[in-house]
Specification:
The N and C termini lie far apart (46 Å). The longest helix is centred in the first third of the chain and has 22 residues, at 3-24. Helices cover 19% and strands 45% of the residues. By secondary structure, the protein is an alpha+beta fold.
Length: 301
């Protein structure tokens, strides 16, 4: 493979990894309501730990991505929306400026549609689409999940031509949660109580022989050491370690460390020694919440 396309492929994997990072980092130990009147970055006064997951409708998070000597070389945004009674989430990421030119203005687009299950506490994916556009080339993978027949179907399309498709049985008692479902389910405690020192194993969409994500919330004693090293002063933040299949994300070890606010908003992530790009950094830019009539019927997030 030519160097140009090797670099583009690596950057593609990084953006996917960043998306997953910012969904996986939502495993923190908050209180029901903010404990103080002072709000730190990534906190908001209407925070709730549990409730109707549809309260997140209207929220969009904006993320800046930097690497090598390029600050804010790419941007990403993720949000939950509803249109014509269809609940869906979109994650978009794209390079810009000189880096955009260098990477043929690569764009990543992820979209999932959901059913709301478990009495409104959890999202379950109905479809999941992943599309990568590099110049005039497009690579997409489409998944559908039928929990009545317990069937997962997928197809891979490159430049309009189907090159692979298949299906598999979804085991009883298992949900194949895509990265967008994971993002919101974590934030609503759908995978269990969130607390420091806890460990979690999440079933995700099988790919390249891997079907699990493992997340560990660092305990208080270990976190203190990391805070000193990283010059962080807010002890109510949380540090998480995720083990992600390295074959999927082009990391040396598949191990990722990242920080989240006590209100379960991703703050900052550093991926060490990423293939071809060195250290990569992703940082929360802002959170925007636009309410709607349906959102107002439930408690805001």
């Amino acid at each position: 493979m030519k160097l140009k396309y090797l670099i583009l492929y690596a950057f593609s994997s990084f953006l996917l990894a960043t998306g997953l990072l910012f969904v996986s980092i939502i495993k923190a130990e908050p209180t029901a309501i903010a404990r103080t009147t002072t709000l730190h970055p990534g906190e908001y006064s209407s925070f709730r730990l549990k409730g109707d997951i549809r309260r997140f409708i209207g929220e969009t998070l904006h993320i800046d991505i930097s690497f090598l000597w390029f600050d804010n070389a790419a941007t990403a945004r993720v949000g939950l929306y509803e249109n014509n009674d269809t609940l869906y989430s979109i994650l978009e990421a794209e390079t810009k400026g000189f880096v955009g030119f260098f990477t043929a203005y690569r764009k990543h687009f992820y979209k999932a549609t959901f059913d709301v299950v478990d009495d409104g506490k959890r999202l379950r994916s109905k479809t999941f689409e992943r599309k990568v556009i590099i110049g005039d080339m497009a690579d997409s993978t489409n998944h559908s999940f039928d929990y009545k027949s317990r069937t997962h179907k997928w197809e891979k399309i490159i430049d309009g031509e189907m090159i692979e498709n298949g299906d598999r049985i979804i085991p009883l008692g298992v949900n194949f949660d895509d990265i967008l479902a994971v993002f919101y389910n974590f934030r609503n405690s759908a995978y269990g109580k969130v607390k420091k020192g806890a460990e979690y194993t999440i079933h995700t969409v099988p790919e390249k022989g891997a079907d699990e994500i493992k997340v560990h919330i660092i305990n208080r004693d270990e976190q203190s050491g990391f805070m000193s090293k990283n010059k962080r002063s807010n002890s109510e933040e949380f540090l998480l370690k995720a083990i992600i299949p390295k074959e999927i994300f082009n990391t040396d070890t598949g191990e990722l460390l990242f920080w989240t606010s006590r209100h379960l908003i991703p703050l900052e992530t550093t991926v060490k020694n990423y293939i071809l790009f060195g250290d990569l950094h992703a940082k929360l830019n802002r959170r925007i919440f636009k309410s709607s009539k349906k959102v107002k019927q439930a408690s805001p997030p």
